[in-house]
Design brief:
Blueprint: E1 5-14, E2 17-23, E3 33-34, E4 37-39, H1 46-58, E5 62-73, E6 78-87, E7 100-106, H2 121-134
Parallel strand pairs: 1-6
Antiparallel strand pairs: 1-2, 1-4, 2-3, 2-7, 5-6
The chain binds 8-OXO-2'-deoxyguanosine-5'-triphosphate (8DG).
Length: 135
Amino acid sequence: MTERIVVVAAALYDGDRLLAARRSAPPVLAGRWELPGGKVEEGESSEAALVRELREELGVEAEVVARIPGEWPLKSPYVLQAWTAHLVPTSPDPKPLQDHDELRWLAPGEIWDVNWLDQDVEAIRILERLRGAGS
Ligand SMILES: Nc1nc2c([nH]c(=O)n2[C@H]2C[C@H](O)[C@@H](COP(=O)(O)OP(=O)(O)OP(=O)(O)O)O2)c(=O)[nH]1
């Protein structure tokens, strides 16, 4: 069986605003926007990986809420999974410490104002649908 490595990404909300992060590397992805996160390490749960990545990349303390249904192929052997999350009340504000050079909190009408990575678009669409259904 071929190896399969999960990349976990966070739809991090502050109220109804969603955090988008602009990648600074590698060159092929730089300048495009994504849900922050990273690779799950061996023996690590997806939730623990997400909390760790958000701490490393943004300097925040986050709590994972729920998995967004679906899974999206990235460059083999990676697949993308996404989770909703929020900051714990004592968390510092996010800062682009690693992998990103800009962050934006997107209000509901601003979701498509950034140039999302192609592979993230379906996850963002699902989020928008879930949000629509919930409001
Ligand atoms: N974090 C994240 N990565 C994504 C998304 N969409 C997408 O194609 N990717 C790709 C970019 C990278 O090739 C890979 C994740 O790498 P990463 O650089 O964020 O993960 P990492 O921190 O664990 O990486 P590393 O520096 O330890 O190698 O998945 C997304 O929404 N979030």
